Structures are given as C-alpha cells and as structure tokens.
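Consider the tokenized backbone below.
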C-alpha cells in the first residue's frame, strides 16, 4: 500500500471517531450550548484526576509540600466547577446579577 492511502485512511478514521464522539453535541441546534457544555463536562470529569496525577508526580518526586498543596487546591477548585454544576451555576448567576444590577443602577 502507498503511504498516501495509509495517511488518508488514518485521517478518515480520526475524523470519523471525532464526529462520533461529538455527535451528541450537535444533536439539536436549539440546545447546542447545553450539548457542548455536557460534552465538555464529561471530558473534564474524565481528565481531571488523570492530569492532576501527572502534575503531582514532580511534587511527589521532590517531596515539595507547598507545590503539592497548590495542586490539591487547584484540583479542589476545578473539581468544584466540574462536579458541582448546579451550585456553581447558582453562584455565577448570583454574582452576575449583582454585577449587572449594580451596573444598571450606576448608569441610571
């Protein structure tokens, strides 16, 4: 087989896999924001602890407590956004309403 055919087959397979994974995100045009958000949330849940473990390896190797605590703090904050979506959504809505409300009052 020629190299071009192999490269095209690999590219077609990669595009097909990418489209099959992203299929639910494109399901309904009216719900595209929710669908993309759900897709990103599922990816974030799958990758959060794996990336945290890879980042923590150098801290463990150096036995650096401060760097380890920073990693733990970041994982807790990011994990809060990824796993506790309803409370985070309510908090962001409350903050936005506070900012938007004070901006409107200041402009009048």
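A designed sequence for it:
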């Amino acid at each position: 087989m020629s190299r071009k055919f192999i490269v095209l087959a690999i590219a077609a397979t990669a595009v097909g896999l990418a489209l099959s994974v992203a299929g639910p995100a494109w399901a309904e045009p009216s719900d595209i924001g929710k669908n993309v958000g759900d897709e990103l949330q599922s990816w974030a849940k799958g990758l959060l602890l794996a990336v945290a473990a890879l980042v923590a390896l150098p801290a463990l190797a150096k036995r650096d407590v401060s760097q380890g605590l920073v990693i733990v703090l970041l994982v807790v904050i990011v994990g809060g956004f990824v796993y506790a979506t309803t409370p985070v959504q309510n908090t962001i809505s409350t903050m936005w309403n506070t900012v938007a409300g004070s901006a409107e009052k200041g402009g009048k």
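Residues 32-62 form the longest helix (31 residues).
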